[in-house]
Fold this protein.
Amino acid sequence: MRWVSFSYDKERAVLYREAVLREMTDAAGKSEGVCFGSVYFGGGTPTCLDREDLVFLLDRARNLFSVPPEAETTVEANPGTMSRPYLSALQAAGVNRPSLGAQTFDESLLRLLGRPVGPEAVRRTVDSAREAGIKNLSLDLIFGLSGQTPGSYRHTLERALDL
C-alpha cells in the first residue's frame, strides 16, 4: 500500500483553496434552487489547510449554495492534527461533525498502515472537539486489514464506542 504524503506548502495550499473555490462557484451556477441538507469537506485531509483557509471555504460554501444553518457539516481530519482553537474555529464556521480517521485502535496495525498517530491522539482530538462544543463526530474505521483478527477489531469497536 502506498500513501501520498508531503510537507505543508502555503503556496500549494493557496492554489488548492482557489481551485476548490472555482469548483464551488461553477457548481453553484448549476444548482440554483437546490437546498442542500449537508456539506462534506473530505477526500483527503482538508484540515491540513490553515484554519483561516478552511473557514473561508466553509463560509463560501454556505454563501454560494442554499444550505440551512442546521445542515450537517462534516470535515474529514486526521486525529492529532487539530488543536482546540482550530476545532473551535470550525465549530463557529458551522462544522457540527468532524470525521476522524482513526482507522484502528491496534498499534501494530497502525504501524503497518504508516499512520503517524496512535489511539491516544484520537482520544485527545475527541476530547478537544467536545471542549469546542462539537457533540457529534464520526470515527473512520477499517475492517479487513491484513493481520486484523476478530478480537482486534472487537477491541477497536469497543474503544470507539467508549469515546
Remarks:
- The chain has a mean pLDDT of 90.
